[in-house]
Amino acid sequence: METEVFALGRLPLAYSARCYTARSHNLPKDDCQFKCLDYPNGRMLETREGQEFLVLNGIQTQSALTHQVLEQLPELQALAVDVLRISPQYSGTMKIIELFDAARSGGDLGSLSKKLLTLLPLGACNGYLVEQAGMDFGAEVPHDTQQAV
Q1: Distance between alpha carbon 15 and the CA centroid of its chain, in Å?
Q2: Where are the domains of the chain?
């Protein structure tokens, strides 16, 4: 059976029947005027403390941080993961693919990860992959929970 891991992108957390962007501009859903084009990275929501928390992007609620697993590639390869899914970003997607390809080919993960961070809007997370809070950034894929990947 082919195994796929979500390798890079904002985490999709919820979907709505109605586009938030159209609604926030008091537009009917059948005449949204493509207002989402004004917000290519979505609309940021912050906590009361001012921490960037969620992104509203059309009908999707996403994580503010970008999930990425570049430094965990050797562990994922050892688990026989077949496919890495990279969600397209507003900008830099081709550079991101090149960095993942370099990592897959044995490049220096630390150096490649630093370059990757410069392409992410707010920073990285991978907590769900490493059994932490989703917005955390951890180091290792748990070896005893292969089904979690």
Answers
A1: 16
A2: 4-9+65-148, 12-63
